[in-house]
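Feature request, filed as a ticket because there's no other form

It would be nice if the structure record came with a short human-readable summary line next to the tokens. Right now we just get the raw output. Example of a typical job, pasted below so the devs can see what we mean:
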Amino acid sequence: MKYQITIAAVLLAGISATAQLASSHSGSAPATAVASAKAAQPGPSTVALQTTGKPVVRINDAVLTDRDLLREMFVLFPYARMHNGFPKKQEAEIRQGAMQMIIFEELVYQEALRRKMTIPAVRLQQDEKKFKSQFSSREEYNAYLKTEMDGSEAKLRQQIRRSLLIEAMLKAEVENKSVVTPAQARLYYEKNPKQFEHGEVFSFQSISVLPPANANAETLKDTSKKAEDCLKQAKATKTYEEFGLLAEKVSEDDYRVNMGDHKVVKRSDLPQEVIQALQALKTGEVSGLIQLGNAYTIVRLNGHIPVGRTRFAEVRPSLMKKLQQQKTEQLRAALDKRLHQNAKIQQL
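Raw output as currently delivered:
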């Protein structure tokens, strides 16, 4: 399970047993180890990836180091691994966001310990096995273990347990409480009608015949004749697929590669000539030739939605997702504030 929180205007990945350990606490753990051991010199536009195990923050009785901070910075800006450093202009913001996140995670972990939460031994074994499977060889795993865990598998198991406790705590305090029901979404929909109003829209396909640049009178006459031939073929089509295949074959506009389909287009984005033609059609009907300057187009109406409000059934899935995301962020922020109230935090 993954959770999200906005830090320094960037969404950071949340904590799952393998995902958080693989990204936040090891992530490209092998890449971190290699970068520490044999990093090439970064360019002048980047800040180097260097750690020494130096303490960076004390949270109650726990001390986190620059290694913990760097792992979280990788989550926020993973491209640093490829470029062997962070952009100088963004490094301070990335560092601050990562600092806030490791403090939050440690406070969540300490609260899980205070509540005496536990992780089944079977689950710990499963996630340790999953974590080890990320490495391409035993040598690569050993290199990571030596660099990041002081060569101790017991320390690795403790980190996995820590991640799982953070996950369990967030599930109890955030995920389980952020569920949005259809009834709640419906209530929001009814209380905020303006958010779901829309203008007039059309969905249609087109076939266009375009004259060449600097066309003379004779060329324009040929263009007109070609457009008439296309119209006869278009009128003979009976389905979306038939019109679409014809569009791919004869049309000269950019939509020909997609069955001539423009999907949904706002009335305000269409020429008046096209609007008039579409308004005169029933769904499935094909227009006559529409002249736009020296060009010609033919449209097939697939749908027309007048000005109005989108039905609840159509917006329900996306609305429930949006409301749940908002609730999740609110609960995370409230939890963060609550955990900070009695905590002693000192950046070193």
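Something like this underneath would help us a lot:
The first helix runs from residue 17 to 23.
The CA atoms of residues 168 and 211 lie 65 Å apart.
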